Amino acid sequence: MATSLQTLVPILSLLLLAHVSTSYGGSIAIYWGQSASEGTLREACATGRYKYVMLAFLNKFGSGRTPSINLAGHCNPANGGCTVASRNIKFCQSKGIKVLLSIGGGIGSYSLASPADAKSFATYLYNHYLGGRSSARPLGDAVLDGIDFDIELGSTANWNLLARNLKGFSKPSKRVYLSAAPQCPFPDRFLGKALNTGLFDYVWVQFYNNAPCQYAPGNINKLISSWNRWTSSVPGKGKIFLGLPAARKAAGSGYIPPSVLTSQILPRIKRSPRYGGVMLWSRYWDKQTGYSAAIIKKV
């Protein structure tokens, strides 16, 4: 059937407008576990504001070290005290929230000495925290959804192999999700090779404590430029998140007032199909400031 030019022009205009105004929805990810004052994991999940929760941190492992999780004042894994977390993890998962174990952190002692070490540690994580079996599971019988890589010190070697080995445990009935928290200077020194595997489902880039690629009062250009590079450079189909401190005191620099984030930055970065949402450090600081509540309707 023939279409007149008079009819076609409005249709093309609407299509162009739809393309220009495309905006992708996102979610909020949060780190929990580094302050007894932040409340329980169940309380965090009950807010309904978080889609992803990272348990921070397993910060001792590899190179002959006995793996050890540090949940600050919440519980003592040495005497089995953290197994009580199992019911709270299951509660979060019942709400559709993915709960991941974060390995690494800014304080700790960790590295992977060799490819064999990476394989061995992946097996340990699977049996003790994911879908495998062990008589000594630090967080009880709850099966976590995946592993978060927050690698900020030590050796840069073998993290890509750890990612490959962990993904090898994925099954149709229970997927192993991988996330990472690289610093915004691209490529990340520690996680660059791992991210190049294209295996990560979520990448929450830390756009703070890094002056060359973070927000400065009155200037969003460096952040936007860095965001564009990350979303166009990380292989795979994983979602990219804007990682931010939930309070001025939560980081040395890079804090973005919620009003600036929602009015100036989110409208820009949500144009990318790789946009996944906002990651906040941390539940403790978010509880103090209400940052997630202030932005959730715009994320």
Fold and architecture overview:
With 299 residues, the protein is of the alpha/beta class. It has ten helices and ten strands. It has an eight-stranded parallel beta barrel with strand order 1-2-4-6-7-8-9-10, surrounded by five helices. The longest helix is centred in the first third of the chain and has 16 residues, at 5-20.
Can you summarize this structure?
The protein is α/β, with parallel strands linked by helices and 299 residues long.
Structural descriptors:
eight-stranded parallel beta barrel; 299 residues; disordered N terminus; 10 helices; 32% helix; alpha/beta
Write the layout of secondary structure elements.
Blueprint: H1 5-20, E1 27-32, H2 41-46, E2 52-62, E3 65-69, H3 85-94, E4 98-105, E5 109-110, H4 115-128, E6 146-151, H5 159-167, E7 177-180, H6 192-195, E8 202-206, H7 221-233, E9 239-245, H8 258-269, E10 275-281, H9 283-289, H10 291-295
Parallel strand pairs: 1-2, 1-10, 2-4, 2-5, 4-6, 6-7, 7-8, 8-9, 9-10
Antiparallel strand pairs: 2-3
Q: Describe the sheet with the most strands.
A: 8 strands, parallel, barrel
**Secondary structure tally: strands:** 10
Order of helices and strands: HEHEEHEEHEHEHEHEHEHH
By DSSP (H or I, 4+ residues per run), the number of helices equals 10
What gross morphology would you assign?
Answer: globular
What is the average of the pLDDT values? 94
